[in-house]
Amino acid sequence: MLRLLPVLALLLAPMCRAAENLTECEKRNETAADSTLIFVFNCMSSVVSLIGVAANILNMVILTRSWMKSSTNVYLTVVSACDTLHLSAYLLFLLLRTKQDFNLKTLSFFVLRCSSYFSNATVWLTTTFTIERFIAVTKPILSQRFCTVGKARLASFVNLLISLLLTLPSFFEFKFMPCRVLDPKTRSYMKRFEPKHTVFFKSIGYYYELFMAVMFLALPLVLLIVFNSLLIFSVVKATENRKFLMRNQNSYGLHTGGVLLTSGSVPRIPLRKASDGKTQFAKPVLNRKPVVTEQQRITIMLIAVVMSFVLFLTPSAVNTLMNTKLKNFSMAANFLVLFNSTLNFVFYSLFSVKFRHTFKLLIGKPMTTTLCLIREKVQTRFGDRCCVSNCTRRSESSQVEPVVKDGTNGFLDPGPETPKMKKNLSRALLQRHSKRAGQRLASSNQSVAHT
């Protein structure tokens, strides 16, 4: 039997080499697939981060206008600033993570911890303005005392300070130690710096990670789900009450001072004069839809922001609390956190009319001015041909009557007042009078409805 062992070894040697080659091929394929996935993840994360930085800068520019000052906008401005710094720090980390210099490695780790700090601060800021909005909706008298701009700034500062104190130990988690790694291509050893846990963090690492997971993931998510559900319930209830009041108003009218206001007793409003000189009258329409105010839109907007926040933060919470070792799941969870930081501009634009108007005011006018300047440069560059063609088109489309210039004062004289001009002027005055009368009636109806 002992003599047969060398023979068996010779026979099994090719099979062992084939198995080793197969496992090496599988490892190479897995390594190639992992590197491709990491490359795609880095590209997508970079694009999303760049878009998020631009969107959050726009948010801060719009929300810091003087006419946008409110307690809710203070929280949203600080959230936009934290999201901007979080995405910028993550972009810088992606640039520095492949460097092998000791200083750059240390800087990349510091930048990553700064990104985590701003992300943690955003979590509690979102929780704070959700609670603040719940107080503003359900306790209007109490909100006049607590839901102010000064209190919002103080709460934001306290949130940032507490988040910094709780995140500060994570900056001392690793230290980079030099080591020699074999390069498979050149078959030579290279000097690299690998992170290793410090002695301080080895003793408290497990408990600290558990504490951070509870403080910045589990507890905020529970509070957000509870208060967001209460906000949704209050909005639905307020909508039903408003529809009920509008239905009663349309059916029975309003009792004011013992007089029942119906469609027959409401005074008629003069609208315009007909061609025969008689004034036409119309009655106000009582069957109107309930108006959604700006405050209700803000509440709905914050509900949407919180729902997306909970939805995109839950995978990261599951990954951290369960300590999963799945690399693909971890990358997907991190990408969802980055994607959530870019969505606030979309929600603000969809639900806030005031935000849209401010955006048009700040962005629309400069864009129009830029287009006009580009058009002038194009006309001056391509000579008189473009200008002559434009002038001929304008002259063919509209013929302007010549205006006589007054020689006494140098101003344009419009000529004598004709009966047609008098008629147009009286019609404009009548329309203005009817519009003001309708506004006064609407304001009186609203005051009666409130009483």
Blueprint (SSEs and pairs):
Blueprint: H1 4-63, H2 71-96, H3 102-138, H4 140-146, H5 149-167, E1 174-183, E2 188-197, H6 199-252, E3 254-256, E4 259-261, E5 269-273, E6 279-282, H7 294-321, H8 327-340, H9 344-351, H10 353-381, H11 384-397, H12 419-450
Antiparallel strand pairs: 1-2, 3-4, 5-6
Helix pairs in contact: 1-2, 1-8, 2-3, 2-5, 3-4, 3-5, 3-6, 3-7, 6-7, 7-8, 7-9
- Unreliable sequence segments: 7-30, 253-263, 271-287, 384-417
Which structural class do you get from the secondary structure elements?
Answer: mainly alpha
Secondary-structure element series: HHHHHEEHEEEEHHHHHH
- Main sheet makeup: 2 strands, antiparallel
Helix segment tally: 12
Q: Strand order of the main beta sheet, please? A: 1-2
Note the gap between the termini: 108 Å
Number of strands: 6
CATH topology of the domain at 34-255 and 291-351: Rhopdopsin 7-helix transmembrane proteins
Domain G-protein coupled receptors family 1 profile: 55-348
InterPro entries: GPCR-Ligand_Int, GPCR_Rhodpsn, GPCR_Rhodpsn_7TM
Subcellular location: Membrane
Main location: membrane
Describe this structure as you would to a colleague:
- The chain is mostly helical.
- The chain has a domain at about 35-255 and about 290-350: Rhodopsin 7-helix transmembrane proteins (Rhopdopsin 7-helix transmembrane proteins).
- The protein has helices at about 5-65, 70-95, 100-140, 140-145, 150-165, 200-250, 295-320, 325-340, 345-350, 355-380, 385-395, 420-450; strands at about 175-185, 190-195, 255, 260, 270-275, 280.
- The strands form three sheets. It has a two-stranded antiparallel sheet. The chain has a two-stranded antiparallel sheet with strand order 3-4. Strands 5-6 form a two-stranded antiparallel ribbon.
- A hairpin with a 2-residue loop joins strand 3 (about 255) and strand 4 (about 260).
- Helix 2 packs antiparallel against helix 3.
